[in-house]
Specification:
Layout (H helix, E strand, L loop, with lengths): L6 H18 L14 H13 L18 H11 L5 H4 L6 H11 L2 H12 L5 E4 L17 E5 L2 E12 L6 E7 L10 E7 L5 E6 L11 E12 L3 E2 L5 H37 L1 E2 L2 E2 L4 H29 L5 H25 L1 H4 L5 H10 L8 H13 L3
Parallel strand pairs: 1-4
Antiparallel strand pairs: 2-3, 3-7, 4-5, 5-8, 6-7, 9-10
Helix pairs in contact: 1-3, 3-7, 3-8, 5-6, 5-7, 7-8, 7-9, 7-11, 8-9, 9-11, 9-12
The structure holds flavin-adenine dinucleotide.
The site of flavin-adenine dinucleotide has 20 residues, from strand 1, strand 3 and helix 12.
Length: about 400
């Protein structure tokens, strides 16, 4: 087994590492929670990211990106995740990153021009709307209630979506809807590109959550007699589930890596504190109880990183790696939660102070066990595959 990265990836990793420290960390003081950076600062840092050659690691070179494989992406996403603003500055934040991946794979040339290219240039934002309130799709995506009915040369969408990240201010949504209620659930769902200004498409509210959120919040959307053209179908009629799987596989891994970067930041904050702060006649870092917590965290982060890189390597070799991506999603989401929790504990009261980054990471990481498939659902999928093998 070869654990080394290509010279291109090594060089890019160093560049992103330096860029995050020099250009992104100083901007954290200007971040507005649930909105990200003020536009002027975001444009400026993104221009610098282009100049520094670290822009959009996930995009092909012809679209201004770095043209990396999934392994290379994962390496860079961990570096970017060191700051909550890193993925935004490099234009590789969720949900746009996963949407770009999907559009690049599945969009027609016309759709690429209209939706993908402005998104790739960072001129607009997008969102992905699958989850619905009861009795609709959640952990079980086959429960989709949103319907698209053909009327003449149009498809008319009706339904309600919620927790759609980034919907407020997004230029368009990728909406999952049932087009053939008689087909088996995994064959009767289609993805539609719905523009924000379309009559019948309304972002009715931003749902307040414990997470700090990114630009555009987590929103509820109502689709009421929202008519779209046939050309707004993404990837073909009835292809929704297949495409969602293609989007989610790599997106789960890149999410894991962004979170590993965030956990590395939490570890740095906690180790600094442990070196400075004294209790019972010595520095916290000299107490065995503290040391073991750091050791456990380092072990979990190392195991997480190796798992993700292995799954990424399988994806790069044409394997769908479904078991591995599910395993990564469960293990990493739970491990980074424990790591950040330990870091909060090491920092005592300062760990939960709202003026520090740790409490924010602690709030944000909780949702990671729910989005991109709750841990229980991935465990179910892993076990199902394992038990049905014989
Ligand atoms: C921060 C955040 C961002 C999100 N962004 C988006 C987005 O952009 N687009 C989008 O479409 N959705 C998004 N979601 C929604 C997310 O995909 C769903 O929350 C997730 O799929 C779970 O669905 P649910 O919340 O309806 O949970 P439910 O389906 O109501 O399930 C509740 C709980 O039941 C448990 N459970 C479910 N199935 C099983 C089982 N088989 N065995 C044991 N326990 C089980 C799990 O613990 C689960 O958390 C986001 C969610 C969050 C928190």
């Amino acid at each position: 087994m070869n654990f080394s990265f290509s010279s291109t990836v090594q060089a890019l990793r160093q560049r992103v590492h330096a860029f995050i420290r020099q250009e992104v960390l100083p901007l954290e003081a200007h971040e507005v929670e649930e909105q990200g950076l003020p536009d002027e600062l975001l444009f400026r840092v993104r221009a610098k990211a282009r100049e520094a050659g670290v822009w959009a690691p996930q995009l092909p070179v012809e679209y201004g990106g770095q043209g990396l494989d999934t392994v290379g992406l994962c390496v860079l996403f961990e570096e970017a995740g060191y700051s909550p603003l890193g993925p935004l500055a490099l234009h590789c934040a969720a949900p746009d990153e996963g949407n770009m991946h999907l559009l690049h794979r599945a969009a027609t040339p016309e759709q690429k021009q209209r939706y993908f290219e402005p998104l790739a240039r960072g001129e607009v934002r997008s969102c992905f709307a699958l989850t619905e309130p009861h009795p609709g799709a959640g952990s079980d995506p086959t429960m989709i209630q949103t319907r698209a009915t053909r009327q003449g040369d149009r498809w008319v969408l009706n339904g309600r979506k919620w927790f759609t990240s980034g919907a407020k201010g997004a230029a368009f949504a990728i909406v999952a809807a049932v087009t053939d209620p008689d087909a088996p659930p995994r064959q009767g769902v289609t993805l539609f590109l719905v523009e924000a200004g379309a009559p019948g498409f309304e972002v009715v509210r931003e749902i307040p959550t414990m997470t700090s959120g990114g630009p555009g919040g987590h929103c509820e959307i109502v689709l009421q007699d929202c008519a779209v053209r046939e050309e707004q179908i993404l990837g073909g009629l009835g292809q929704g589930f297949k495409l969602m799987q293609q989007r989610l596989g790599p997106a789960r891994l890149t999410h894991c890596m962004r979170w590993l970067g965030a956990a590395a930041r939490a570890m740095d904050l906690a180790t600094n504190y442990a070196h400075q702060r004294q209790a019972f006649g010595k520095h916290l870092a000299e107490h065995q109880g503290i040391q073991w917590g750091f050791a456990d965290s380092a072990i979990e982060l190392h195991a997480s990183r190796l798992m993700v890189l292995h799954a990424a390597w399988k994806l790069d070799h044409g394997d769908e790696a479904r078991q591995e991506t599910s395993m990564c999603k469960v293990f990493v989401a739970e491990a980074v939660g424990r790591v950040i929790d330990r870091c909060v504990q090491v920092c005592g009261a300062l760990g939960i102070a709202c003026e520090g980054l740790l409490e924010r990471l602690y709030r944000d990481v909780r949702a990671f066990r729910i989005y991109d498939g709750p841990s229980e659902v991935h465990r179910m999928v892993i076990a199902r595959h394992l038990l049905n093998k014989k």
